[in-house]
């Protein structure tokens, strides 16, 4: 019975960690994309002729910020479906 309780505790804390990972990564990505977008709009408002040069940079940085979120979701899914911590207990 002790072994089952230990596995249940690991799964319980893993679920909490998954929620925190996805939640914080989502908030961080939203803040990051919002800051990049705001700075792009500020730069385009100050110098409208440079908006065409700034726009590709905006999309590259926004893509990199979203890639961090997607990697975090992938790691969270790895913990959800193939938890290596449970394998250490067995």
TrEMBL record:
Q: Which GO terms describe its cellular component?
A: plasma membrane; proton-transporting ATP synthase complex; proton-transporting two-sector ATPase complex, proton-transporting domain
Cleavable signal peptide: none
According to its UniProt record, what is one Pfam family this protein matches?
A: ATP-synt_C
Which CDD domains does this one have? ATP-synt_Fo_c_ATPE (cd18185)
Topology of this chain in the membrane: Multi-pass membrane protein
Q: Which GO terms describe its molecular function?
A: lipid binding; proton-transporting ATP synthase activity, rotational mechanism
From the record, what ranges are coiled-coil? Answer: none
Q: Does the keyword Cell inner membrane apply?
A: no
| Residue ranges of the TM segments | 12-37, 58-81
Q: Which UniProt keywords apply?
A: ATP synthesis, Cell membrane, CF(0), Hydrogen ion transport, Ion transport, Lipid-binding, Membrane, Transmembrane, Transmembrane helix, Transport
Give residue ranges for domain V-ATPase proteolipid subunit C-like: 16-78
Q: Where is this site: Reversibly protonated during proton transport?
A: 66
Q: Where in the cell is it found?
A: Cell membrane
HAMAP family named in the record? ATP_synth_c_bact (MF_01396)
Q: What does this protein do?
A: Key component of the F(0) channel; it plays a direct role in translocation across the membrane. A homomeric c-ring of between 10-14 subunits forms the central stalk rotor element with the F(1) delta and epsilon subunits. F(1)F(0) ATP synthase produces ATP from ADP in the presence of a proton or sodium gradient. F-type ATPases consist of two structural domains, F(1) containing the extramembraneous catalytic core and F(0) containing the membrane proton channel, linked together by a central stalk and a peripheral stalk. During catalysis, ATP synthesis in the catalytic domain of F(1) is coupled via a rotary mechanism of the central stalk subunits to proton translocation.
Question: Which family does the entry's similarity section mention?
Answer: Belongs to the ATPase C chain family.
Q: What is this protein called?
A: ATP synthase subunit c
